[in-house]
UniProtKB/TrEMBL annotation:
Species whose genome carries this gene: Moniliophthora roreri
Pfam families per the UniProt record, alphabetical: RT_RNaseH_2, RVT_1
The organism's taxonomic lineage, starting at the top: Eukaryota, Fungi, Dikarya, Basidiomycota, Agaricomycotina
Identification of the protein by name: Reverse transcriptase domain-containing protein
Alphabetized PROSITE patterns for the sequence: RT_POL
Residues in Reverse transcriptase domain copies: 1-51
Domain of life: Eukaryota
Length: 198
């Protein structure tokens, strides 16, 4: 069994939940490898994300090579970079808009041509990842603020919540590249689409 995450605010509740999960696994003849388990930790790496009390960040080992990642020279190279970038897109505001020049290269019958616009998009995305953005863990007991916007090419949405410091912090970003049909919508319809995507 892989990738089980149990979290709780209180240690007694946490131990009870952990016991229940372990019992269910045993009842169904599912087993865990002890060397792969962590119990009662305040920081863990889970599915490429570092989870700490109240925050989620990107895995530093995955980010280590981003600084030296050279501009792609082939469509395969573009796909490789976009595979990495798409995995962490919820950390980057307006990701779909920023990545659009690179995504264009992955469409059928598009000849590989590394333009200045694509080079800028590639380097801006790298810079955004290197800023090591941190997301606040959402709290269902607090109100959320949704900021949505739309351009000619994409929507951008950020979900925010007030943190312990009284400031608003992002809990996650959502973006959506418009289809050819959606690009013809009036701006108010594109902005409404941004809100519905949120």
């Amino acid at each position: 069994m892989d990738d089980i995450l149990i979290f709780s605010d209180e240690i007694n509740i946490h131990r009870l939940r952990t016991k229940r999960v372990l019992e269910r696994l045993r009842e169904n003849d599912l087993y865990l490898k002890p060397e792969k388990c962590e119990f009662e930790v305040a920081k863990t790496l889970f599915l490429g994300m570092v989870i700490t009390p109240g925050h989620i960040s990107m895995d530093e080992t995955k980010l280590a090579g981003i600084k030296d990642w050279e501009a792609p020279k082939t469509i395969k190279g573009v796909r490789s970079f976009l595979g990495f970038a798409n995995f962490y897109r919820k950390f980057i505001g307006k990701y779909a808009e920023l990545a659009r020049p690179l995504h264009e290269l992955t469409k059928k019958n598009v000849k590989f041509e590394w333009t200045k616009t694509r080079d800028i998009a590639f380097n801006v995305l790298k810079a955004k990842f290197l800023q090591r953005p941190i997301l606040q863990m959402p709290d269902d007991e607090k109100p959320f603020i949704i900021e949505a916007d739309a351009s000619k090419w994409a929507t951008g949405v950020v979900l925010k919540q007030q943190g312990p410091d009284g400031e608003l912090h992002p809990c996650g970003y959502i973006s959506h590249a418009f289809t050819a049909t959606e690009r013809n919508y009036e701006i108010y319809d594109r902005e409404l689409l941004a809100i519905t995507n949120a």
